[in-house]
Amino acid sequence: MSILDEARAMRAKYIALAQNAPDEQLASGDYLSVFDPLSGDGSLIPARSVRRYEGALYRANVDCWDTAENTPNAAPNLWTRLTLDEWPAWVRPTGAHDAYNAGDKVTHNGRRYLSQIDGNTAEPGTDERWWQEASGQI
Questions:
Q1: Which of 12, 43, 91, 122 lies in disulfide reach of 130, CB 3.0 to 4.6 Å?
Q2: pTM
Q3: What is the spatial distance between Cα 89 and Cα 71, in angstroms, rounded to a whole number?
Q4: Cβ contacts of 116 within 8 Å, gap of 6 or more
């Protein structure tokens, strides 16, 4: 095995380890350069993988293909932005794997909401049983 092959293998192990770091740690911005950017090359991105896109890190919610149609801007339900923002923007869950849990905080339509249940896939503001509006607007 050449030294270049060894370096590639070590990098792959390093990225695999970093992808399992807590989202809060990855969202700090210190790890941005560790992860590969979305390239549009058509490769498979396994669920829970982290990729760089427009200066931020995103975690894939499901297996998806690295295509222009599957970027966080074009298909936001496929991705979770790793952010330190206490009230991130609500993204419609695609299923149980990316549903909100009790106590999760989101912003939606200019208002802040707290999830009332685990496995919450409802849109904030549609039913007070699922989302409670937090005091004050943004």
A1: 122
A2: 0.68
A3: 17
A4: 102, 128, 129, 130, 131, 132
